[in-house]
Design brief:
2 copies of one chain form a homodimer. Chain A is α+β, with helices and mostly antiparallel strands and 368 residues long. Chain A folds into 2 domains: 5-133, Creatine Amidinohydrolase, Chain A, domain 1 (3-Layer(aba) Sandwich); 135-362, Creatinase/methionine aminopeptidase superfamily (Creatine Amidinohydrolase, Alpha-Beta Complex), CATH 3.90.230. Chain A contains 11 helices and 18 strands. Chain A has helices at residues 5-18, 29-36, 61-67, 82-93, 107-116, 128-134, 138-160, 168-181, 244-263, 270-283, 359-362, and strands at residues 23-26, 44-47, 52-57, 72-76, 97-101, 121-125, 186-187, 192-195, 216-221, 223-224, 233-238, 295-297, 304-308, 321-324, 327-330, 334-337, 340-345, 348-351. In chain A, the strands form 6 sheets. A 6-stranded mixed sheet of chain A has the order 4-3-2-1-5-6, with helices on both faces. In chain A, strand 5 (97-101), helix 5 (107-116) and strand 6 form a beta-alpha-beta unit. Chain A is elongated. The N and C termini of chain A lie far apart (49 Å). The interface between A and B is large, with 45 and 45 residues.
Chain lengths: 368, 368
């Protein structure tokens, strides 16, 4: 099984007509990959009803022939800019209203393109490809399931080899190596490994704290596949004597997560699912310690469209894949976040990740 | 020794006056780090003569207090956007002409900022912070020297343990682990490890080719320090019987690199140094196999301002650090690139990296 880039581009052409553009310049890196399979960077795709042309440079000439053998390619040399090449391609393609990706085009690029493109009007578009990417196809779900599998096997190695003298950084490297040994090409993002007070920083870097320093160890990690798809999970391990506060915080987060997951189905708004988890945490008295959104889409990128947060009015659709990751962070003490990956199905949802998540299961006593 | 963020911001305020703005919104990630030391993302800095305020969100509240204890911070919650927070801060700071970074601000962000900021005019600026970053201070040079040291020690491990059955990917992981063991926090970028035809792809991913498949092995790698600084080097190893063609290509690339390095000194134009290397490769008959620029600045990012290429009229200045990396790529056969890191000094330059680079030294026969 392999992805149908052609089918994706056909869908995009329909969206372009609705957006009233007869050409589209795609500069978002993951969007270019989604539509062509090309894994390099610094390259843009131009699409209209008669043309599909990848604009790249000589560094990628051979790689393009390998990865996208059926695609038209225009190569610039190091003496010209991608803006100049784009203007040439647009003029030849005879589009009159050329969309560009307003979220992936800088003001500087736009200014330069506007100067060079004289035969067409540039029109700002927003999220045309991202909205296609929100709903995963069968091939993409296979990739994501593989990325979850690598991540889960990897954390199994970590869990079974925790030692009191291990540092956060050592755990991070062990986890990365384990995921690679199971087939991942690497971590899906820089893993967060935090002991005690570091676990209270939602986006901490792994540092030099030892496991023995505190009873709470938080790991937020994922794997990536060769095809570029990611997974994103978080688990907390209680490596020492659990306190009543740890138990209360943990069980509150878990209850919030489970209640939110239960509510996910097509037609439900993201904001409403966020509110379920947030309300539960607020009623337990921890509202001000949960500062981030409940979850997000992921796939080729670790953060993709569909944000599950207090302001997203978007409705869930069958085929979306999102994280559900409430947390409570007590500054200077510890933090708990529990994160799973959830597929929206026609009759509700399927939790794709299946690691232990009960409080008792999180207790992993280790040798001193 | 530690960096003086205050001194950097004072210099920037001078540049702002020249650019005729009385406030500046800095959204480039590396620029924010350069001016504050903050290592998180999704955060912007607002600067004027009376204010220096980091705009962030609750995920980073504690980390900001750790990393930037003397900085004013404005934190938004997950129910508001950074654009809204920015408008509030700008209104309070009373700047009238607020610059934004045209190369780091998307058309979409700019549109949204323009709607929300009513008390000031938004003015596009370009490269104000990047130009400061072109010239490295003493502390930065220490960091870069450390990043080079980690990288050089790492490749030493690889070189001394090459085996015919090793794959490109295995070498990549070994290299990363070795650099970390010497003190790097990770690779400076995804290392390129290419055997034979893969070495002919200037930006290849490490794959499954074995060392034994071809006599040429190319490694393009670097380390990163905890402070975020990088190194960037390339070496080619001849692991089998060298052919006359390999020798010719290698010696041509090396001669081009050495001639270019010799020409680097303050006041010389980048384009002229590029021309020296390119001319030498062209006269040897390989001109069309050298498609990329000769080099680039690096530091907090692996590609920074100062591009040494056929169109850059920029002059070298004392304190700049650039790569010098000519290459010849024979599609389907092999490629050779030799890359070193060069500091521009008042009386010429200093090559910061000191690995063997002669053809004879590149021959590393391995066991079958």
């Amino acid at each position: 099984m392999s992805p149908s880039y052609q089918a994706r581009r056909t869908k995009l052409l329909r969206e372009m007509r609705k957006a009233n553009v007869d050409g589209l310049l795609i500069s978002g890196l993951a969007n270019v990959r989604y539509l062509t399979g090309f894994t390099g960077d610094s390259s843009w795709l131009f699409l209209n009803s008669a043309n599909c042309i990848l604009l790249s440079d000589t560094r990628y000439e051979t790689q393009l022939a390998d990865e996208c053998p059926n695609l038209d390619v225009e190569i610039r040399d190091s003496g010209s800019t991608i803006n100049e090449l784009t203007a040439k391609v647009v003029a030849k393609a005879k589009s009159k209203r050329v969309g560009f990706e307003a979220h992936h085009t800088t003001v500087a690029q736009h200014g330069s393109l506007g100067e060079k493109i004289t035969a067409a009007v540039l029109v700002a578009t927003s999220g045309l490809v991202e909205r296609l990417r929100e709903v995963k196809d069968k091939w993409e779900l296979e990739q994501i399931r593989a990325a979850i599998e690598y991540a889960q096997r990897g954390i199994g190695v970590v869990r079974s080899s925790l030692r009191s003298d291990q540092t956060e950084t050592e755990i991070r490297y062990l986890l990365e190596a384990a995921m690679r040994s199971f087939g991942a090409t690497g971590p899906g993002f820089e893993p967060i490994v935090g002991v005690g007070p570091t676990a209270a920083l939602p986006h901490a870097h792994a540092g030099t704290r030892c496991v023995a320093e505190h009873a709470v160890l938080l790991v937020d990690w994922g794997a990536s596949t060769e095809s570029g798809y990611r997974s994103d999970l978080t688990r907390v391990f209680i490596t020492g004597k659990p306190t009543k506060q740890m138990e209360l915080v943990y069980k509150t987060v878990l209850a919030a997560q489970q209640a939110a997951i239960k509510a996910i189905r097509p037609g439900v708004k993201c904001v409403d699912v966020d509110r379920i988890a947030r309300g539960l945490i607020e009623r337990a008295g921890f509202g001000k310690y949960f500062g981030h959104g409940l979850g997000h889409g992921f796939g080729l990128e670790i953060h993709e469209a569909v944000r599950v947060n207090p302001i997203s009015e978007r409705e869930f659709e069958t085929g979306m894949v999102v994280t559900v990751e409430p947390g409570i962070y007590l500054p200077g003490k510890f933090g708990v976040r529990i994160e799973d990956d959830v597929l929206v199905t026609s009759d509700g949802n399927e939790v794709l990740s299946n690691l232990e998540r009960e409080f008792d299961q999180a207790i992993v006593p280790i040798l001193a």
